[in-house]
Amino acid sequence: MTTALAMVAALLLDAVLGEPRRFHPLVGFGRFAAALEARLHADARVAGVAAWCIAVLVPVALLCLLRAALPAAAVFFVDVLVAYLALGRRSLGEHARPVACALRGGDIDRARIAVGRMVSRDTQALDETRVAVAATESVLENGHDAVFGAMFWFAVLGAPGALLFRLANTLDAMWGYRTPRYERFGWAAARADDALGYLPARLTALTYAAVGHAARAMRCWRTQAPTWDSPNAGPVMTAGAGALGVRLGGAAPYHGRWEERPDLGEGDPPGAGTIVRALGLVDRGVVAWLVVMFLGGAAAHA
Predict the structure, then answer these.
(1) pLDDT digit string (tens) for 118-143?
(2) 59: exposed, middle or buried (C-beta count within 10 Å: 0-12, 13-18, 19+)?
(3) Among 170, 194, 211, 278, who pairs with 139 as Cys (CB 3.0-4.6 Å)?
């Protein structure tokens, strides 16, 4: 029950305050990781494993030591703070809604700029439909990365679990690329993120199915997820697209060339309204997770 209450408090802080404006700890962590990479980078997996352990396991261990040294009341506030910093529910809407607003206003240039803050693809090459595809995919995938994944590990391991997941996810975004520089050095970051995200990604897919069109979501997950490169993004995005009843995926421009990607979901192409509906899917999922957490807490204390 304490875990559920701490999560509610963290979600309320996120809803009221949003991400820290002056200095976000994850931004500081990214700078630290970049400095660590500059010092330890080598074209070898062992170097990447060492860098990952220093960047992730050391902060998690320090948090565990801090919690062990504090009284229970103080631990609760530390947990709330860590969970708040690990969550990005409000930020998801703050990035996605400007894209929807620009599309509704017919301002494709502003929509491209806004979606460029969400995705890594070449946004200047996107038409209105592909802007909506990019934004909707980002909402669905980050529903796992920035919301449900953190909630899952917080429920399982408390604040250290949420911190572990978010730091590992951040490193994957920095080092987990199949490029000459990161093919070996980034191997540990990519594999760790896959492992930590395996269960929460599938729970996220189930959540999208439960709060959307369940039969279509499950069908798309079953038939389309195996075609997607990422073992975790595949279930999340196929189930999300099916739950919304839209067609995502398809070709997308990266680094000056178009890459063919499998189709996701079923139905019409997305538009501005789809982006808002994807945010609603995440929000309904958050409510469902809180209900389950409170029921689980009540059952444990019965």
Answers:
(1) 998 889 989 999 999 999 999 999 99
(2) middle
(3) 278
